[in-house]
Design brief:
This protein has about 90 residues and is an all-alpha fold. The protein is about 85% helix and about 0% strand.
Length: about 90
């Protein structure tokens, strides 16, 4: 495993562990809102870099719940790109 892949794996594991810790807390709503707002401010290209597939499913569920359909479409598009590239 090269250095970049190791970094990406460590980053994904870290993000997933933080997300799982926050997921069941009372702060989940505000954390997801902030993630979605940050995601919405970025371009598709930046989103591809900054957000990996470990967070996208939960972000999509929250965006649907909030009826932010344009954002849902962007997240879905990134999820499709992730599954296509695997």
């Amino acid at each position: 495993m090269n250095r970049k892949n190791k970094y990406n794996l460590n980053r994904k594991v870290f993000l997933q562990s933080i997300f799982n810790m926050v997921k069941d807390s009372e702060f989940m709503e505000s954390v997801m809102m902030e993630l979605l707002e940050n995601y919405n401010q970025n371009t598709d290209e930046i989103n591809e870099i900054e957000y990996d597939e470990t967070l996208l499913d939960e972000m999509l569920k929250k965006a649907i719940e909030l009826e932010w359909y344009e954002l849902c479409a962007r997240i879905h598009k990134q999820l499709e790109n992730v599954t296509t590239n695997k």
